[in-house]
Amino acid sequence: MNSGDEKSKEYAQRRMNELKGLSVSDRYVINLSQNGSNGGKNILTKSELQEILKSGGDITKARIQKLSRSGSKIDRQYAAELLLHAESEESISFLIELLHDTSSKVRNTAILTAIKKNNDEVIYSLIDNLNHPKCGTQALNALVIIGSRTLNFLDSAFYRSGQSTQTMLRIVQAMGRIGGQRARDLLWNKIDFPDKIVVSQVLLSLGESGFKASISQITRIKYSLESDIADVAWNLNAYITIGNEGNAKEIKKALQREIQNDTQHVYMLLAMLYDTRSIQLVKENIESGTTEGTTYAVELLDVFLSEQLKQRVIPVLDDLSETEKLSKLEIFFPQIEVNEKLILKFLINRDFTQANRWTKANVIKQIGILRIEDFKLDLIAQLFNPDWLVKEIAAWSLHQIDTEEYTITTFRLGEEVKKKLDEVIVNESSLKLIDKVIFFKTIAVFEEIPGLTLSHLADITEEIKLPEGLSLTIDEKQNWFFYIVLSGAVKYYEKGN
User: Fold this and answer.
1) Contact (CB, 8 A) for 329 and 321
2) Angle at the Cα of 71 from the Cα atoms of 66 and 77, rounded to 5 degrees
3) Which of 189, 178, 197 is nearest to 217 (CA)?
4) How many Cα atoms sit within 13 Å of 372 on the Cβ side?
5) pLDDT tens-digit readout, 119-144
């Protein structure tokens, strides 16, 4: 902090702020430097300084109230930081206000403060933030850090009337990460919840929390295991059937990811039924990629799996081709014979627990590329899907097949949604979400990341067009976005150089 080098000073200040959970506090100072330059900092007035001195250095309620209700986002963010050090319990009400602020930066700062300063109302406010597109992950992490004290509040919020599926999923995720017997009991109570997507996450969270099935619970876990193996068989059949036209390559990649995810789920469920170390040993040997490793893993499974499970589990985990795996599984999970076109229809209408949003988006794109008119009604149905990735690509495919039908149907979605779709599809003034993901995949750092994960990244990206000659300031205090150049070129300057 006392270094003569300006860069070292700035770095030290940033690290201090990170340790304290601060990001803007260094912008508020008591006096100016001798040269009179304030460097964009906010100077404390005489009355504010007197207020701090009178309170013995404590941050007063009046000062926090003034900052938290300021029209300036930076003032409100500063208030959220000050609350971390405020002694008065009365100030908690301002933290609750800031946890519902319109600015995501202010909310995120308030969430960091809430980890240390919280009561029942603050915990409920954190739960309310779980569905926020830019603050949901931060709120989830905060609840996990606060720990088991949040479990009853999370459980109560899960069953709240009108609760969104997204919030339910995050609540279940939080419970799994908090762990402990109480969390496992609450999760097991949700195992037969009517929403399959939620049940799928419940199973994942149970696995994460170290759940072991008791005698009365074994049957339910075996049922889930059979369902996963059935999904693997179905996806293998789709992979073999899909053909090679148009977008088939991307669909096959998406289906391979689906099969990999289902296989990981199988390992997780086996660990609930059998010795965790034995299952881990099987997994490590199969994933080693060697013939010896796979042979040893299959021999281990042959020892401790029941006869019924052996015939179903081993083909899924063994190092076999897609055709060989399907051949062994088809005895237990027979597949109907379908052609390249019909398999697309089945994939679109599959449950989201069986075909994720990225797989569906690629299938819908294929329908648009091949201009399959028979599937117009399926595309129209997907226009009313709440998932924007699916809705947008369904609109694009319908526009490729029948522009008149596109115009008529999008009117039914409302003026605002139609305008947004027209900008992307008719005017082509910005990228579709699916195109953003395809662009991400061309960047080396994202190469091995699944399309599903990148699709969630695409959800929160913003596209900006920078006119020639215009500059954009990037720093860690006010503009902490990560920028990727899609087209054109930019020059990077640091301290004028």
Assistant:
1) no
2) 70
3) 189
4) 21
5) 999 999 999 999 998 899 999 999 99
End-to-end CA distance of the chain: 24
Q: Does 243 reside within a domain?
A: yes
User: Computed over its alpha carbons, how large is the radius of gyration of the chain?
Assistant: 27
d(CA 331, CA 415) in angstroms, rounded, equals 52
pLDDT digits (tens, 9 = 90+) for 371-414: 999 999 999 999 999 999 999 999 999 999 999 999 999 999 99
Token pair in block for residue 187: 């999760």
Q: Are residues 317 and 223 in the same domain?
A: yes
Residue 451 lies in a domain: yes
Range of the domain at 261: 215-329
Q: Which of 329, 358, 380 is the last residue of a domain?
A: 329
Asked if 129 contacts 99 with a C-beta cutoff of 8 angstroms, the reply is yes
Average pLDDT (365-376) is 94
Residue 230 lies in a domain: yes
Distance in angstroms (rounded) separating the CA atoms of residues 431 and 406: 19
Alpha-carbon distance 315 to 228, whole Å? 13
Q: Which residues have a Cβ under 8 Å from the Cβ of 222 and sit 6 or more positions away?
A: 273, 309
Nearest of 69, 137, 143 to residue 106 by alpha carbon = 69
Task: In whole angstroms, give the CA distance from residue 149 to residue 144.
Answer: 10
Report the alpha-carbon distance of residue 426 to residue 420 in Å, rounded: 10
- Cβ-based neighbours of 210, under 8 Å, separated by 6 or more: 179, 184
Answer with the one of 268, 298, 329 that is the final residue of a domain.
329
Q: What total of structural domains would you count in the chain? A: 2
Answer whether residue 79 shows pLDDT above 90. Answer: no
**φ, ψ dihedrals at 43, nearest 5°:** -90, 130
Q: Are residues 365 and 408 in the same domain?
A: yes
Q: Look at the block and give the residue holding tokens 């019909």.
A: 342
Q: Are residues 324 and 356 both part of a single domain?
A: no
d(CA 419, CA 398): 16
pLDDT tens column, 304-357: 898 889 999 999 999 999 999 999 999 999 998 889 999 999 999 998 888 999
**Pair (403, 451) in one structural domain:** yes
